[in-house]
Amino acid sequence: MLAVLSPGQGSQKPGFLTPWLDLPGSESRLREWSARCGVDLLHLGTEADAEEIKDTARTQPLLVAAALLAAEHLPLDGVGLVAGHSVGELGASAIAGVFSADAAVTLAGVRGREMAAACALEPTGMSAVLGGDPDEVVATIERHGLYPANRNGAGQIVAAGSLDGLAKFAAEPPAKARVIALQVAGAFHTPYMKPAETALGAIAGDITVAEPVRTLLSNLDGTAVAPGDEMLRRLVRQVTAPVRWDLCMRTMKDLGVTGIVELPPAGTLAGLVKRELKGEGAPEIVTLNTPDDLPAARDLIARHGNGGAA
User: Fold this and answer.
1) Calpha distance 210→50 (Å, rounded)
2) Which positions ≥6 away from 10 have C-beta within 8 Å?
3) Catalytic pick from 85, 144, 189, 304?
4) Catalytic residue among 11, 26, 34, 86
5) Global pTM value
6) 100: annotated active-site residue
7) 224-256, pLDDT tens digit by residue?
8) Which domains, from first to last, does the chain contain?
9) How many Å apart are CA 231 and CA 105, to the nearest integer?
């Protein structure tokens, strides 16, 4: 089985969309999506510096647009499974056929703006916790009044909450764990984002949904979601719910995924998969970052996709 993965916030790099503009129709597509999400995707993807594309309101629609732009150049009929990390779920849902690419970019624009606004209400943040016993790490996070916002597998859990709580947590880390403060605007995927969840839910009712045409995994619990309206409800809820990427990877293994293409800006999810699903039966991975990577991605889909020989 071939899986396509859509990355989340933090994977962006300055200028990463520049080579994609050489493909016919890419510039006009990005201009159209810019009007839908309210940010200049062409500027952000080609000329903006790292600081500018760190802004949640800009980064989220940029990442969704980048993934969908690249996916338009892949033979998706051969793709059996899709999944996205955090905001990447919007792109994954569009690729699965739950709603249109235009709807995904529109939702990403609202999500990004509203999460940025929620971050401004209180001083909050996030810290990566590397290593340690997972159960002990989560228990220590919660003991400090924080939330395990991301459980990424491969020995990585992200704590989120008040800056004061994060400082105390870093001063008393779990055994055999390293705590690294992340340069983010606030505590994503926690109750601090409730205003953003409410705002996203208010427009979700206007989105036309359909049943997914390929297996679509949910960050909520790693399961495959069939009803389109259920996936849309989960996407809204995910704004305040933890990202269980560890469970998504477990499902990929259980379903027998043998090949993976990560959409641009690729590398982060591929790294997690390589560390978690290693050894015999580890999936073959292509990181799709420029159009030069398209032949390798198409070949992988042909060999591992529907009708292909793994």
Assistant:
1) 36
2) 182, 184, 268
3) 189
4) 86
5) 0.95
6) no
7) 999 999 999 999 999 999 999 999 999 999 999
8) 2-119+190-304 (3.40.366.10), 124-181 (3.30.70.250)
9) 16
